[in-house]
Amino acid sequence: GYIALPTASLDATKGMAVHGVDVRQDVVDTINQGKIHIHEPDLDVLVRAAVQSGNLRAAVKPAEADIFIIAVPTPFGENHKPDMSYVEEATHSIAPFVRPGNLVILESTSPVGTTEKIGEWLKTDGVDTSRVYLAHCPERVLPGKILNELVTNDRIIGGVNHESSLAAEKFYRQFVSGSILLTEAKTAELSKLTENAFRDVNIAFANELSLICEKMGIDVWELISLANRHPRVNILQPGPGVGGHCIAVDPWFIIDSAPAESKLIRAAREVNDHKPRHVIEKVLKKADELKAKKIGCLGLAFKADIDDLRGSPAMDIVLELAKHQNFQILAVEPHIQALPPALREYPNLHLCSLEEALREADLLLLLVNHRDFVELDPARLKNKNWIDTRGIWK
Ligand code: SAJ
To answer: Fewer beta carbons within 10 Å, N or C terminal of the chain?
Structure first.
């Protein structure tokens, strides 16, 4: 996936023999042809080089190795409880191949205690864990900049013992130019959750400010840019909500482990999760005032210049608007060729070009600050009605 494929390809081009595992046969076939199934700048070139070198092969089952890296999703299930089933399944799948002296690394963002749990699962499966190195090294790469950050970011390694941390450090040294910082497994686990909760809390502050400003008739983007001129103030940007599979998920893992103590982290999640609803209400009100029927929705991805629709607030907003059958929804997403299944069932919604939306829509709703929308000539917006959730059309 998004973490393992870049890591596997990079390692393969560094001369390591890599056996990449995915449960989906179509993904395995795509990679073995030197192609990719996800969009990430320059990843296609790297994967092609890795496969052509003969060092990267993909399969649906694990095999014997010196080092095993687990980088599977860790979503939440009901009541925002961490769903560790993918990590558990991956652990059981490698257990028959783990030998004394091997190193097992968990890269998936995980609740505190997961690395220790992997040791327990391996032991239950008959692995002599006293002779296996085990460490957590959370991935920290930013989608859109993965290949660069995979090399340059500092890495935190938390082994279940110091020998495990050292073994993992030796591995990452081969391709990481940033610093490598050693700690305990539980500290490494919480540090990753903390990084994403930090960003979530700070975006929530910006989103709360946007509501306050709206009430007071103040331009929140001007306010933030002015406040940020203070040497110790650095407010993030408000938007239509927080999406993706990390920032909107990981803070819940802290809340789940320490609910009574996580008041601010929970409040931030609630502020950010409420923002799409606020945008919908605003659109409905404005559409009613204007008697608008055709709504041009610009952007479906969870953030700028990527094709990833997972957990996207823009998707939630567009989906909700499409339920209003009196609206025609003109969805513009330059990074996809076809609508995702969730949107396909609405006859009053279609994917169209920016040109068509500009020409046809009675009301434009800017949801994602994709380059195409940022660079739009302001003259094209003259005499148009629009709502800008990202503050780019001034
Ligand atoms: N967003 C705002 N305002 C901002 C910044 C972001 O509304 O000022 C929104 C974005 O539009 C998006 C969401 O937040 O919907 C998350 O985007 P992001 O760019 O903040 O983060 P991700 O989810 O792409 O990647 C994060 C990164 N974590 C941090 O920056 C602390 C990345 O380094 C992690 O590796 C990644 O999560 C992960 O996999 O955990």
So the answer is: C
Q: Which residues are catalytic?
A: 192, 246
Q: Which DSSP state fits 19?
A: E
CA distance 251 to 237: 19
Residue 239 beta carbon below 6 angstroms from any ligand 1 atom: yes
Q: Tell me the two tokens of residue 194.
A: 């903390």
| Residues facing 329 on adjacent strands | 295, 349
What's the pTM? 0.95
Q: What sign has the CA pseudo-torsion 308, 311, 316, 319?
A: positive
247 CA distance to ligand 1 centroid (A)? 6
Closest CA to 360 of 270, 297, 266, 275: 297
Per-residue pLDDT band at 39 (split at 50, 70, 90): confident
Ligand 1 closest atom vs CA 246? 40
Q: Which residues pair with 76 in a beta bridge?
A: 82
Check: CB of residue 1 under 8 Å from CB of residue 22.
yes
Please give the distance of CA 267 from its chain centroid, rounded to a whole number: 21
10 Å CB burial of residue 326 (0-12, 13-18, 19+) is exposed
Instruction: Choose the residue to mutate in 246, 253, 374 for probing ligand 1, maximizing ligand atoms within 8 Å of C-beta.
Output: 246
* Region of 62 on the Ramachandran plot (φ > 0 left; ψ -120 to 50 alpha; else beta): beta
